[in-house]
Amino acid sequence: MEFLDLLFIVSFFVGLSVFCSLNKHLLMTLLSLEFLMLNVFFMITVYLSVVGCLYFSMVFLTFMVCEGALGLGILVSLVRFYGNDYFQSYANLVC
């Protein structure tokens, strides 16, 4: 079990570092956020399978799917409106 814990921790921090460092494109930010959420889902599933309560993991998976759909919807609307997915072009929206 210690190897699995170490694997979850390392992959979480790798995803977090990618989320913090590659924030030029909105798509890369959304992909790294989905990687983080997938890692958290696997951690929740493994830890709750020991207890025998997997209902929370299904609720979390539902929220994960909603977050991904909202992110892609925002990405599509911003690309259609501005023509790219750079964060630099969205900085002009602030007054």
Q: Which key features would you list for this structure?
A:
95 residues, Helix Hairpins, 0% strand
Tell me what you see in this structure.
Its main location: membrane. GO terms for molecular function: NADH dehydrogenase (ubiquinone) activity. It holds the Pfam family Oxidored_q2. InterPro entries: NUOK/Mnh_C1-like. The protein has helices spanning 2-21, 26-51, 55-82. Helix 1 (2-21) packs antiparallel against helix 2 (26-51) and helix 2 runs antiparallel to helix 3 (55-82). 3% of the residues are buried. It is built from three helices and no strands. The chain is elongated and about 50 Å long. The protein is an all-alpha fold and 95 residues long. The protein has a single domain (2-93), classed as Helix Hairpins, CATH 1.10.287. The chain starts with a helix and ends in a 13-residue tail after the last helix.
Class, according to the CATH hierarchy?
Answer: Mainly Alpha
CATH topology: Helix Hairpins
Q: Mean pLDDT, nearest integer? A: 83
Q: What is the helix fraction of residues, given as a range?
A: over 70%
Which residues form runs of ≥5 with pLDDT under 50? Answer: none
- Going by CATH, the architecture would be Orthogonal Bundle
Strand-pairing-aware structural class: mainly alpha
Assess the beta-strand content as a share of residues: under 5%
* N-C termini distance: 51 Å
Coarse morphology: elongated
Order of helices and strands: HHH
Largest sheet: none
Evaluate the radius of gyration.
16 Å
Structural domains: how many: 1
Query: Count of helices?
Result: 3
Membrane topology: Multi-pass membrane protein
Transmembrane segments: 6-23, 30-48, 54-79
Protein name: NADH-ubiquinone oxidoreductase chain 4L
Pfam family, one: Oxidored_q2
